[in-house]
Amino acid sequence: MVIILDLFKEMNYIDGITIINTEGTILFSVKFNPDVDNRIEESIVGKKLFDVFYNLDKSTSSLYECMEKEMVVLKKEQLIKNPYVDDIYTDNISFPIKHEGIVVGAIELSKMINGSEKNNCLEREKSSDYNLLEMKPKCLNLGYNATYFLEDIICKNKRMKELVEYAKHIAKSPSPVFITGETGTGKELFAHGIHNASNRKGKPFIAQNCSAVPENLLESIFFGTSKGSYTGAIDKKGLFEACDGGTLFLDELQCMPIYLQSKLLRAIESGAVRRIGENIERKFDVRIIAATNICTNDILSHKYIRNDLYYRLSVVNIDIMPLRERIEDIEVLSEYFIKKYNRIFEKNITHISPEVKSFMLTYEWPGNVRELENFIESAILNVKKGETVLKSKDINKMRNYSRKEKPLKHSLEDMEIKMIEEALLISNKNVTKAAEYLEIPRQTLQQKMKKYRIEK
User: Fold this and answer.
1) Strands 26-31 and 16-21
2) Cα separation of 443 and 426, whole Å?
């Protein structure tokens, strides 16, 4: 505590606070500096840290450093670049946020460096080998470019491959798309891919999480504001204007208030919006891709989304399978994530321990692909240098967490399906060897495969 107090004294004051979760999503951002428009800060909530501050990555961000080290980090003279304001330098104190001993995010207190302090920083940059001109933004205009392609979707499952092909087929049409799927299945990945496979590629792609913005700001963010419409208001485009010619991705649409859904429907059908505080209609040409983690029946029966809006947006429906229903994808996804985090953490994992492999093939993965990636990232991070086998201490904890109350019959059937799929995977789909692995007659295995519609 004494060290933290000393850090605060050294900074003298703070003029900004940023909070992210472990996935890098900005949960909160505010600036106390009068030169910064806080409506800009509010608009970045729900976006990825590195899409907004495009010169940062995991190796240079003090927020990520404090989460990785699980300790307070002081970083001086950090260069910050984003599309809305001029380049600035900041001094930062970053703290990991923990829940029940596990890091769940980070908070950063920052102070802008001005005047002579800033000039000193610039001189140091110029005299170093670090060339600022080489720093290209990963995503301009707060993520206004789609960064993924349908070819980036890693899958082996037949139905998933068919879904990717279907997405390619409908991509060039102007029709709206409605994507459903559990959390972590890759809904935004599909949205990026559809945009990049469409005739709108190269035009703006804006992803807006409807649950990440305070309700009182949603209308101004979608439709824009005119100067003088309220105290502090400025002339600012809304999402529809900013996205003209491109694709607007509305994630977690069910979180949008019903009253705003009616205005959204009116804007989509008329192809025009009026900024708050003015009477001028501004035309736009935008393709809408909406997504929700709630199944269609629940959406309509519980009235999360207006029926007329749902029918307007669901011209094309894409329902992404949960990871537990495409067990063969676990292996190829794991290989990809192992290569990715081997490179990031400078490790050399070449294979997975039998215990971890068995767990991965039988675990339900309620967080789907995102949870699988986090599991592998954590496991590789904890592997010692020089080790080549992937192990994990989190298996039992995750098993207990994933237990759900189900009727005995369904639980037994689920267990049988998973054991059969695991045996087929281990035996390279050789039914005889799979039956030997399960210690049952080959004919019995074939009957069960037919019963559960398990393909060889």
Assistant:
1) antiparallel
2) 19
- On the question of a common fold for 150-319 and 331-451, the answer reads no
Q: Domain spanning 150-319: which CATH class is it, in words?
A: alpha beta
Q: What is the mean pLDDT of the chain?
A: 81
Question: What is the distance between the alpha carbons of residues 1 and 10, in angstroms, rounded to a whole number?
Answer: 14
Q: In sequence order, what are the beta bridge partners of 209?
A: 251
Map out the domains of the chain as residue ranges: 2-141, 150-319, 331-451
Q: Convert the chain into a string of H (helix), E (strand) and C (coil).
A: CHHHHHHHHHHCCCCEEEEEECCCEEEEEEECCCCCCHHHHHHCCCCEHHHHCCCCCCCCCHHHHHHHHCCCEEEEEEEEEECCEEEEEEEEEEEEEEECCEEEEEEEEEEEECHHHHHHHHHHHHHCCCCHHHCCCCCHHHHCCCCCCHHHCCCCCHHHHHHHHHHHHHCCCCCCEEEECCCCCCHHHHHHHHHHCCCCCCCCEEEEECCCCCHHHHHHHHHCECCCCCCCCCCECCHHHHCCCCEEEEECHHHCCHHHHHHHHHHHHHCEEECECCCCEEECCCEEEEEECCCHHHHHHCCCCCHHHHHHHCCEEEECCCHHHCCHHHHHHHHHHHHHHHHHHCCCCCEECHHHHHHHHHCCCCCHHHHHHHHHHHHHHCCCCCCCEECCCCHHHHHHHHCCCCCHHHHHHHHHHHHHHHHHHHCCCCHHHHHHHHCCCHHHHHHHHHHCCCCC
CATH class of 2-141: alpha beta
> Of 52-56, 419-423, 426-430, where does mean pLDDT reach its minimum?
52-56
Q: What does the pLDDT look like over 242-285, one tens digit per residue?
A: 899 999 999 999 988 888 899 999 999 999 999 988 888 999 99
Structure tokens at 210: 């409807």
The reply to whether CATH 1.10.8.60 applies to domain 331-451 is yes
pLDDT digits (tens, 9 = 90+) for 198-212: 999 988 999 988 887
Cα atoms found within 13 Å of the Cα of residue 207, Cβ hemisphere only: 27
pTM above 0.70, yes or no: no
> Looking at residue 82, what is its pLDDT?
60
